[in-house]
Amino acid sequence: MSKIPSERIWIYRTIFTTLSVFIILTNLMPLQTTPQAWPWPNILLLIIFCWSLREPNFVPVPLVTVILLLHDLLLHRPPGLLSGITIIVLIWIKIITASSDDKSFLAEWVRVSLAFAAISLIYHLLLSLSLVTTTELRISLIQTIFNICIYPFIVLVSHHIFRVKRPYFTRSGRVI
Amino acid sequence: MSNDRQTQTDYFAPLRRLITALLLLSLFGLFVLWRIDGPRVEKFRVLVIDTFVPSFEWMLLPMTSVVKLAKDYQSYEKLLEQNKELRRELQQMKSWKEAALQLEQENARLLDLSQLRLDSKLTHVSGIVMADSGSPFRQSVLLNIGSRDGIQDGWAAMDGLGLVGRISGVGSSTSRVLLLTDNASQIPVILQPSGQDAIVMGDNSFAPPVEFIENADLVRPGDRIITSGGGGVLPAGLLVGTLAMDPNGRLRARLAADYERLEFLKVLRDYGTEKIDGLGSLLKRKDSPSSLSNFTDSSESRDEAFSE
Known about the structure:
The complex is a heterodimer. Chain A is mainly α. Chain A has a single domain, classed as Arp2/3 complex 21 kDa subunit ARPC3. Chain A has helices spanning about 5-30, 45-55, 60-75, 80-100, 105-130, 135-160. Chain B is globular. Chain B contains five helices and twelve strands. Among the domains of chain B are: about 85-115; about 130-270, Rod shape-determining protein MreC, domain 1 (Thrombin, subunit H, Beta Barrel), CATH 2.40.10.340. By secondary structure, chain B is an alpha+beta fold. At the A-B interface, α1, α3, α4 and α6 of A face α1, α2, α3, β1 and β2 of B.
């Protein structure tokens, strides 16, 4: 297991919280008062997946739950549903990654892409099953594709700017 | 050392699993609760928004203005073109202004003749747009006025010219305006000059379709769309926009309000027209009660549908 000093963990948890609030606020900025044809990628989701697969300690599940629920409430989505699905898929991806031998980035990207698609589809399925007037599936699918395309950039930014790195990136073969 | 660590994590692992399970259960529980008892959870949502958003207003406002500044800067490149266009428009406006002035004088004379007093209740509260819906799936904005300013659910929000939407969700210092372009927005309107009733139904596109026109042969693109006040949904006579036909031959509303720049909105105070409860005993006929009660029922269910 990791031996990161606890100050560092807490610093990163604070950074994650601040970053999440900042992302939510940028979402809320009153700039898109007209219907948009091209949705922005869901950066918050990308960061959660990227950091969870690198340093799960920085983004503990309870913190992610609170942030996602806040996101749901502020963005007028059905509260709890998307957060719940996201967390289940996140845990599932973490288990798969831990048990998999293929530690390359390509494998991770494929897994994360499948996860995003699964989240979006399950979300829409459950919404239509519970007879909620569904938001447009088309926009949601475009957003998923954007998410998948942007993911490598988020990984790069996390790696070089935030210094959130994969344990198996170290040369010595030792897992920190 | 590492062994210690290992045992420690093993010790905590079941606890962590339990917490995760509880969290997931509460998340899905919240969703189910929202499905069963929507208004209560929505009240909770309004409370969260009401505490969260104003506390970050100091950050939200400068951030927004910086981005807007950058966007405006881009438009400076087309300044010359814009200037010419504006001059042309100004010329047209002058002729309209002349017409308006003459009409105003005539109107004042007529008002004086008929000794009409305008309803003092028809006033408005202005609010600043603090935030939008934040996602491409919903179309709404958040105003910085709320129940402490006397705002109530269902009131009409307008920009300078036309209807923008209606209040749906009031916190103590914030209120949400559901825009006409949102999927959930349905507004009863009248098409002038033909006087046909219709409903403007938002569909997350720039120009919401106009549906349920009684006789579509009587209307034509360019007709004015104003609210009808049907079902007590909004005050009657607010300008919504003009009718237009899209390439598929579907009638849509070209909205009068400038949705690109929603910075200030005015919310019209509207305490509704007095309802007549029960059947007037003088008017009551033996054979009619069933049809009349049907009518009141349907109007109530329409009210519910609109407040959704």
